Amino acid sequence: MLNLGLLTVLGNLGLLTVPIALAKMLNLGLLTVQGNLGLLTVPVALAKMLNLGLLTVQGNLGLLTVPVALAKMLNLGLLTVQGNLGLLTVPVALEKMLNLGLLTVQRNLGLLTVPVALAKNVEPGSFDGSRELGSFDGSSSFGKNVEPGSFDGSRELGSFDGSSSFSKNVEPGSFDGSKELGSFDGSRSLGKNVDLFENRSRGDVGSKISKLDLGTKEGNGTSGKYVKQQNDTTCAGKMGYWKKGQRFQGLDPVTGMLISGKILGRAGKVTGVNKDCYNVQLDNDGWTGWFNLATLRELSEVNENIEMIILFSNDAVSLAKNKEIQTWIDNKVFEVVPNEGQRAISVRWIVTEKTKDDGLFIKARLVARGFEEDTTSLRKDSPTCSKESVRLLVAFASSKQWACNTVDVKSAYLQGDKIEREIFLKPPPEFNNGNLWKLKKMVYGLCDAARAWYMRVKSALNSLSVKMCSLDNSLFIWKRNGKLEGLICIYVDDFLWAGNATFKKCVIDELQKQFLIGSSASESFTYVGLRIKSFSDGITIDQTQYASSLVPVPISSARNMQRKSQLSESEKTAYRALVGQLNWMATHTRPDIAFDTCELSVAFSKATVTELVRLNKLVKRVKNESLQLFFPRLHSFETCSLECYTDAAFANLPNGGSQGGLIIFLKDDSGKNVQSSGKPGDSSV
């Protein structure tokens, strides 16, 4: 009907696709309204024009809030139409009035089904009454399912001829072409490729002003419009190529505020004048559009958190919850019993959005509030494998030319042994019929669930003649005829193993019969944050992906000049967190930064801007250096020896403390324990 393409506008649920012409025709910005799906962004003018409040209607995606006047104006009930997101409820009259079928269009959350007529190729002039879709000249009521000519404005919702207010909120004449909303006489196109925030072509990015150069918001409070800013040359230089899905953050050159967002795609040629322009989605208000990354100072990449709490309800969440309950049923976790006043523990849902190779998916986990139970007499400790055990396993695998492998157990806690005490749960509201659930097995949230799972795994391994290491209760060893043939490390429900074909057949395959396995990988994978890769000459371990997620603490130019100033409380919090992250890397794959992190750690209580600047420099160094631990294939593992180097300095730390360090190598009979070509990433252990 409008025939001017689709425009993606911002909503708190994500990106919403609407006809461009509708946005241009109304041209009053956006308004966020509350619905049970969360916050939904709609054109302000639609709410202002109708001005009759909001109505919550039922759809299979949940409850959706729409303007009351839209339903009242059409007054023909609701119709459920099929979309790839599920079933979506829309006013029947919208479909019936247009009567051109349905069209599936792309939106950021997936595919959305809308009436074809909204995107049908209709020539200008279709609003004069001469076309199939109806007239605005007015001969009958708009609110009924009638023939063309029903847009006369003679009923309660106002007139389209400019003779009166449309809904007592828009000035008379605003639909006659003389006002900002444009004309309905068909004399001009209603919707060129228009930026919703600025009434100009999207192609107008060739100047020094990008589509959005992150200025300050105008004070109208509704339009979401941004004031244009000139490019800041302090960020000039090579920035590299940003890929879709990467996250960024930096400082606004004018306000000094932290700006962060996500790359949606390129917005200019790689080598053109707009080489630093990208389509982005901002975190602070969710705005989506073109943005010149060169305007930001201290620009850096941020890893997107792949587990975000979903705050709205839809079909995907309902399906995930049903799947979780079905898992409980399949594993015979509980039995339904009458509520006779037993002491019961409540539960809660943890709904997260996760990423796999084939895209995003919703996962729901039902968790018991274990803190409501008396746990004073319960043993809660549960071991996990140490970093030394992981390295030992990798060293054995490399020398014996075994492939490293990983498997994770699906819904591990629910696959444990029967529970030994009585625990009653209050079912979640969606499945509560007045009864209680008596647990037969451990569930997530109980304080001793982790230990119960560990004991279950230990029992299974012992039954397969796999023995626990006396130095690490989460490292298990399998020997046959006195010869080592396999190793396995346990980190809750994640197993890392290496061994020969016999070990796989006699141990791993048998474990997979006892437990339901979620996923498995070999040769190249990530295990508890460590990327393990196998090569013909050895195995490497690195934390490159983890390093890329590190974000320097933003420091404004003015703050950078105050080097001796004590850190603020918020700066101290960020400082401690970042030092902790670096220390995690130093103790796992980056021993080269161990001393720096130690020095930064002892300055916690009296840290100044000087230490903060040094910390940021260390972060940039870690991100720029792609170093890794390399485990070569040793010639004869049976004749290997340990070689240890130590060093210490007296009272060399800022607080007067002394610093010591050591590094231990496993050396084969050839006498070689370190191989280095002087290039990053070649250091070996």
Biggest sheet strand order reads 24-25-26-27-21-28
Percentage beta strand: 25-35%
Helicity range? 10-25%
Average pLDDT, all residues = 68
Largest sheet entry: 6 strands, antiparallel
Q: Based on Cα principal axes, name the global outline.
A: globular
**Beginning-to-end CA distance, first to last residue:** 68 Å
How many β strands by DSSP? 34
Radius of gyration: 32 Å
- Spans of at least 5 consecutive residues with low confidence: 1-238, 304-313, 674-685
Describe this structure in words.
With 685 residues, the protein is α+β, with helices and mostly antiparallel strands. The chain folds into three domains: 1-194, no CATH class; 315-539, no CATH class; 541-667, no CATH class. It is built from 13 helices and 34 strands. It has a six-stranded antiparallel sheet, sandwiched between helices. Strands 14-13-12-11-15 form a five-stranded antiparallel sheet, with no helix packed on it. The termini are far apart. The model is unreliable at 1-238, 304-313 and 674-685 (pLDDT under 50). It comes from Meganyctiphanes norvegica. One of its GO terms (biological process) is DNA biosynthetic process. This is Reverse transcriptase Ty1/copia-type domain-containing protein. Residues 331-551 form the Reverse transcriptase Ty1/copia-type domain.
What's the quick description here?
By secondary structure, the protein is of the alpha+beta class. 20% of the residues lie in helices and 29% in strands. It has a six-stranded antiparallel beta sheet with strand order 24-25-26-27-21-28, with helices on both faces. A five-stranded antiparallel beta sheet has the order 14-13-12-11-15, with no helix packed on it.
